[in-house]
C-alpha cells in the first residue's frame, strides 16, 4: 500500500516543474517541491538498492553513499550556488541531528524492546563524534569575523579529505565484517529490476530531483519570510526532514515489523554517512561553484555534540525500549525549538 502511494506521488515532481514554468507563487512552489522530494528520495533509494543487488556489496555501498544522499547533496549545491551558506550548513546539521535523534527515536518507539547491535551503533556514533571534533577546526575561527571568508573554506578542505578517508576505511572494514553474515533474501520485487533498468530509473529520478531541488532552494527565502521563520530553521528542520523523509519512513516501518536492530543501524549509519561522507563531499564539490566553509555556529556544534552523546547513552547497554524512543523524540523537539529561537545569524 505504501509503495503504491509513493509511486502515485511521483507525479508531484513533473507537476512541480510545470507549476514553476507556469509562474506559481514561491510559497506554493516550496510546499509542492518539498512534497515532491519525498517520493523522489524513495525512488532513488529503491533504484540504488536494486542496482546494488547486481553489483555486490562493494560497488553497492558506493552507489548507496553516492545516490542515497543525492537529494540532500543536490539541495546543498544549489544553495551554495545561490550563496545561501547558512542554509547549506543548517540542512546538513539538521540531517545528522534528525537521523540520530528523530529517526532513531521513532524506530525505538515503534520497535519496542529488543536487542541492538551495540558495537555497530557505537562505531556509527563514534564517527559522528570524530566529525564534530574535526568540524571545530574551521568552526571556532568562524565564530569571530566573517564565517564565509576564504581561509576558512581552505581550512575545511583537509578536514573533508580526512573524513572521506575515514569513511572509506570504515566502509571497507564493515564490508569485511559483514561478508560472512550476508544472507541472500531478495524478494521477487528485488529480482524484477534489471541492472540497466535500475540505472535508467536512478538517472531519471536524479535529474527530476535536481530540477525540484532548484525550485525548493529558489523559493525557500520567500517561504521562510511569509511563514515568519528563519532561513536556518527552515533548512535545519523542514528541508532536513524532507530530504530524508523516505529513508526515515523506511527505518520506522522496519522497526514496526520487529527488526529493531536493523532499524537502529539504518538511523545511526545514515547519520554517520552524512557526517563523514555527505558533508565533506559537499565541501569539495562546492569548489566547482563557490568554496564553502565548515564554519558551523556554536548552536550547531552543540546540537551535533548532544545528538551524538545522548544516543550513545541510550544504546550503551545494547537494549531498546519505547521509553528510550520517546526520550530521543523529546530531545529532537528541544533541539528544533532551540533552532527556532536562535534563528539566523
Task: Set down the secondary structure blueprint.
Elements: H1 2-9, H2 12-21, H3 26-55, H4 57-68, H5 70-81, H6 85-111, E1 114-115, H7 118-142, H8 150-179, H9 188-192, H10 195-226, H11 231-256, H12 260-286, H13 298-315, E2 319-320, H14 322-342
Antiparallel strand pairs: 1-2
Looking at this protein, list some descriptive labels:
345 residues; mainly alpha; A middle domain of Talin 1; two-stranded antiparallel ribbon; 14 helices; 2 strands; globular
Query: What structural class is derived from the secondary structure elements?
Result: mainly alpha
Q: Reading side by side through the largest sheet, how are the strands ordered?
A: 1-2
Briefly, what CATH class?
A: Mainly Alpha
Number of domains: 1
Spatial shape? globular
Give unreliable regions as ranges.
182-190
Query: Mind summarizing the main beta sheet?
Result: 2 strands, antiparallel
Question: How many strand segments?
Answer: 2
Question: Care to give the gist of this entry?
Answer:
The protein has 14 helices and 2 strands; from the N terminus they run ααααααβαααααααβα.
Amino acid at each position: 500500500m505504501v509503495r503504491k502511494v509513493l509511486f502515485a506521488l511521483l507525479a508531484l515532481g513533473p507537476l512541480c516543474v510545470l507549476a514553476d514554468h507556469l509562474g506559481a507563487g514561491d510559497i506554493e512552489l516550496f510546499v509542492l517541491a518539498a512534497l515532491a522530494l519525498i517520493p523522489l528520495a524513495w525512488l532513488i533509494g529503491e533504484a540504488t538498492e536494486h542496482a546494488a543487488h547486481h553489483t555486490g556489496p562493494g560497488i553497492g555501498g558506493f552507489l548507496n553513499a553516492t545516490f542515497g544522499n543525492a537529494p540532500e547533496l543536490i539541495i546543498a549545491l544549489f544553495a551554495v550556488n545561490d550563496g545561501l551558506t547558512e542554509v547549506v550548513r543548517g540542512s546538513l546539521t539538521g540531517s545528522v541531528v534528525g537521523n540520530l535523534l528523530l529517526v532513531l527515536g521513532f524506530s525505538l518507539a515503534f520497535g519496542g524492546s529488543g536487542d541492538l547491535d551495540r558495537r555497530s551503533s557505537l562505531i556509527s556514533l563514534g564517527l559522528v563524534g570524530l566529525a564534530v571534533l574535526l568540524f571545530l577546526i574551521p568552526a571556532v575561527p568562524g565564530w569571530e569575523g566573517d564565517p564565509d571568508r576564504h581561509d576558512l573554506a581552505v581550512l575545511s578542505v583537509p578536514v573533508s579529505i580526512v573524513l572521506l578517508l575515514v569513511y572509506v576505511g570504515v566502509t571497507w572494514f564493515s564490508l569485511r565484517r559483514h561478508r560472512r553474515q550476508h544472507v541472500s533474501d531478495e524478494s521477487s520485487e528485488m529480482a524484477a529490476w534489471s541492472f540497466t533498468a535500475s540505472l535508467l530509473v536512478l538517472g531519471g529520478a536524479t535529474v527530476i530531483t535536481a530540477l525540484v531541488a532548484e525550485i525548493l532552494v529558489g523559493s525557500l527565502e520567500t517561504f521562510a519570510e511569509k511563514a515568519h521563520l528563519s532561513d536556518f530553521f527552515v533548512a535545519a528542520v523542514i528541508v532536513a526532514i524532507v530530504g530524508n523523509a523516505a529513508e526515515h519512513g523506511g527505518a520506522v516501518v522496519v522497526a514496526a515489523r520487529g527488526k529493531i536492530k536493523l532499524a537502529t543501524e539504518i538511523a545511526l549509519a545514515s547519520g554517520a554517512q552524512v557526517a563523514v561522507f555527505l558533508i565533506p563531499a559537499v565541501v569539495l564539490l562546492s569548489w566547482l561553484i563557490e568554496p564553502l566553509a565548515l564554519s558551523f555556529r556554536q548552536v550547531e556544534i552543540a546540537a551535533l555534540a548532544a545528538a551524538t552523546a545522548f544516543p550513545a547513552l541510550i544504546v550503551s547497554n545494547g537494549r531498546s525500549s519505547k521509553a528510550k524512543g520517546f526520550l530521543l523524540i523529546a530531545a529532537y523537539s528541544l533541539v528544533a525549538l532551540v533552532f527556532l529561537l536562535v534563528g539566523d545569524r
